[in-house]
Design brief:
The chain is built from two helices and nine strands. It is α+β, with helices and mostly antiparallel strands. Strands 1, 2, 3, 4, 5, 6, 7, 8 and 9 form a nine-stranded antiparallel sheet that branches. A hairpin with a 2-residue loop joins strand 7 (115-119) and strand 8.
Amino acid sequence: MNRLARIASILVLIAAALTAVTGCSPTGASLKETEWRLTGWTVSSIDPASVTITAKFADGQVSGNSGVNSYSGPYEAGAGGTFSAGPFASTLMAGPEPAMRAEAAYLALLGQAKSYKVIGARLTLFDGGGNESLSFDRSGE
């Protein structure tokens, strides 16, 4: 093996090792062991700042506060940014009507998400058409 080929091989191995250690995908950082707070979505009638909606990704589960109730369910985040989540289980507390609408909208959008991207401290989920549906800022660290 010539010197250039050997160097290229070493660089590929280093890149693979770094990807394995950091859990990074082509879309940015991994979702494993991260916590987020909703900051934006496609529901124009409800300001996401008016409710507390969170998402924590750990051990193949996404969980958090969906506005009024706590929720959890399975998720998968694959290579190339593929994403799926649900079905979700939730506590059954009642709350103010606007927060209940926000909760229903959030869980629907989360269940419809098909891809994700993490850049820095921002997580974005996209629907099946590639449209941005949910935006989060990193929290809890």
